[in-house]
Amino acid sequence: MSKKTAPKSDPLDLAGIDDLLSPEEKAVRQAVRQVCDASVEPYIAEWYESGELPAVRELAEELGSLGLLGMHLEGYGCAGTSAVEYGLACLELEATDSGLRSLVSVQGSLAMYAIHRFGSEEQKREWLPRMATGEAIGCFGLTEPDHGSDPGGMRTRARRAGDDWVLDGRKMWITNGSVASVAVVWARAEEGVRGFVVPTDTPGFSAPPITHKGSLRASVTSELLLDGVRLPADAVLPEVTGLRGPLSCLNEARYGILWGALGAARSCFRTALSYAKERDQFGKPLAGFQLTQAKLADMAVELTNGTLLALHLGRRKDTVGLRPEQVSLGKLNNVNKALAIARTSRTILGANGISLEFPVMRHMANLESVLTYEGTAEMHTLMIGQALTGESALR
Q: Acyl-CoA dehydrogenase/oxidase C-terminal domain: from which residue to which, for each copy (predicted)?
């Protein structure tokens, strides 16, 4: 029996996870990497430092032309890719910047997904094709100034006025808000929480930008103000009532995040590994010291474990589906480990680690937001705890 010679290992993939991907999955990943390298990487540090995402509409159209917006949805101009392909795309987007992945994630997994799953046929035909191309940008209004982890306490109200609906309230920390053409807004109505498709040029709707951010600086973040926003009867999402609607959308977004965080982690690890090989101290490269090698080995192990978990969850989503606690397991683990990798990478770079000449500090600051949004680490811990024990610690 002849012995097989294993191919040379890749320092960024010691376990050979790439061998588990299909040619189609690798092609999607490569296409996303190419557009990121050409259109975002040369400028992202400057955008982050200035706190701007210029030409966001043009960027959305470029991403749409590649089929990345709502790529995991079927029909209405959407690409209909697999969950694994969508996950790999999120990983590559966030390897460039969390703000870029947030743009795509909010567009596809929140705004478009809500319309695709719960909207009327008319709503789907009106909005999804334009959102898939990036012609129309969407946002998702759930979080409020006083209600983040507890959306059941929302104060935004929807009341009937004849055949119309009237919305009043305020949403906070809304990605894409001030550049959106359409907002999916969740409000409390007499019969329960309802979702509404709100064109952003409707009188009474405004989206002032949120500035002075220390994280996700290359991302559009806004408030949503709804002051007597009058909508026709058919603006409501007809297929859902209650918190099941927005929470199912959040699960879609969380799935993309558990992949995306690995991209930020990979970028930090790659930078630290390269720096350790090139930086000389005490007469030899940093990579030659045991403590540095221990840091690099630990990061490689955690990056491998997180990638295997993401791939497993993606394969499961493509076959039998995912439970909410399984998505929580992935987001909690992968974001926590990505943050740890970013922080450890920063220590290898020393003082250079805080410079925007390198991506590490930018990723670390971004991941602090990723840790919190679409469910804080505490909330995902309690969701896992409830799945384990059958007891809710929230009520």
A: 242-388
pLDDT of 2 reads: 56
Is residue 162 included in any domain, yes or no?
Answer: yes
Collapsed DSSP state (helix, strand, coil) of residue 166: strand
Q: Give every CB contact of residue 24 below 8 A, 6+ residues apart in sequence.
A: 85
Whether residue 6 lies inside any domain: the answer is no
Give Cα 210 to chain centroid, integer Å: 19
Residue 235 DSSP symbol: G
- Counting the structural domains of the chain, the total is 3
Residue 306: give the domain boundaries.
Answer: 245-389
238 CB neighbour count, 10 Å cutoff: 14
DSSP state of 209: B
Alpha helices in 186-289 (DSSP H): 244-278
pLDDT in tens, 34-77: 999 999 999 999 999 999 998 899 999 999 999 999 999 999 99
C-alpha to C-alpha distance for 109 and 24, rounded to whole angstroms: 21
359 is a domain residue: yes
Question: What is the spatial distance between Cα 122 and Cα 132, in angstroms, rounded to a whole number?
Answer: 16
Q: How far is CA 282 from the centre of its chain?
A: 42
Give the relative orientation of helices 83-96 and 23-39 as an angle to the nearest 10 degrees: 30
| CA dist., res. 305 & res. 26, Å (int) | 19
Task: Give domain status of residue 395, yes or no.
Answer: no
Q: Establish whether 374 is a catalytic residue.
A: yes
Type of residue found at 33: R
pLDDT digits (tens, 9 = 90+) for 96-125: 999 999 999 999 999 999 999 999 999 999
Output the six-digit token pair for 80: 């209909």
Q: Which of 92, 94, 144, 374 is catalytic?
A: 374
